């Protein structure tokens, strides 16, 4: 049956246990691409040579089959009961010059949101302390900026916040827009665990959502950072399909996707393909369902259905087995049984706390109850990441 505890870590070129082979090859499961590719993932580990057609065929598999095989890969690659709890705080809200169509923080839209200055240290640390007491192990700080260039005072303050929150024993993540190379190095020195960098949607659909910056413009910035001479053996590398881009010494990064922006299923597959073909998969893949905010150009978008989330999560799990797949914005709309389906499909991280930047999030007590009822356990913070295997994965991918 299904509830088998497999080894928690994927190993390259290993074979599935005989009973798993039996499951995978039984007549009920051989027909779907989800079954075939899940078996390959279990056997071979992470791959970076996915074709778009392969991912599309996994994505298009019958939903229950996809859910089953997402769960199977999840149980092979992770402790399936562990769920990471992250708290996301908007430390500088609103007044952003960009025009991201989904975002109430853009100064171009009349959403009633008041722009605020950078939060002071006491308020940020107090929020981090509360998050820790509530069980969060990662604290993420978001600032509504295009970039951090020329924001020296604010940036130095953020370095202090990072340092102090790390000293509280939490993982620390930032999303501050585009960085200069020295800033990435300084963030790492301060103790930053992860940097969030957003793709949002497929390259093709991107111009429908954001016009004030493009994939290529961002690439140029990243190339500038690399060309400025950061050692590419240092710990942060953002690899994009067009080359290797070093951003300093922060090892991990999140690459976020949002569904429900009006994109086609092909665009969702395109986003997953972009992420899954990076030489090193993102440490985290937050999957967001649009929370349509009045006053933004996407205010009339239809809510995302639970089956669309399950499809995205299970496909992400099969094609990026080691990534933390985060059930992010929009979770507040899903019931506990619906969230259970997401965890079963392969999600293993959530955002907790009252708000997700500016939109509502799930109630703390309801989350505690959910953990208890579903038998989930909070994932402990990790400060000793498996650098060797990640580096080996990268080397293999780069040389192939
Ligand atoms: S998503 Fe970020 S960059 Fe885009 S408008 Fe909102 S705050 Fe600005």
Structural class: alpha/beta
Number of strands: 13
Work out the helicity level. Answer: 25-40%
What is the helix/strand order?
A: HHHHEHEHEHEHHEEEHEHEHEEEHEH
Proper CATH architecture of the largest domain:
Alpha-Beta Barrel
State the strand order across the main sheet. Answer: 1-2-3-4-7-8-9-10
Binding site for [2Fe-2S] cluster: 140, 173, 233, 326
Pfam family, one: BATS
InterPro entries: Aldolase_TIM (IPR013785), BATS_dom (IPR010722), Biotin_synth/BioAB (IPR002684), Biotin_synthase (IPR024177), Elp3/MiaA/NifB-like_rSAM (IPR006638), rSAM (IPR007197), rSAM_sf (IPR058240)
Binding site for [4Fe-4S] cluster: 96, 100, 103
Task: Give a verbal description of the structure.
The chain has 2 domains: 18-77, no CATH class; 82-399, TIM Barrel, CATH 3.20.20. Helix content is 40%, strand content 17%. It has 14 helices and 13 strands. The strands form 3 sheets. The protein has an 8-stranded parallel β-barrel with strand order 1-2-3-4-7-8-9-10, surrounded by 5 helices. It has a two-stranded antiparallel ribbon with strand order 5-6. It has a two-stranded antiparallel ribbon with strand order 11-12. Helix 12 (336-345) links the parallel strand 9 (324-327) and strand 10. The longest helix has 16 residues, at 152-167. Mean pLDDT is 80; it is low at 1-15, 224-252 and 385-400. Iron/sulfur cluster (SF4) binds next to loops. Pathway: Cofactor biosynthesis; biotin biosynthesis; biotin from 7,8-diaminononanoate: step 2/2.
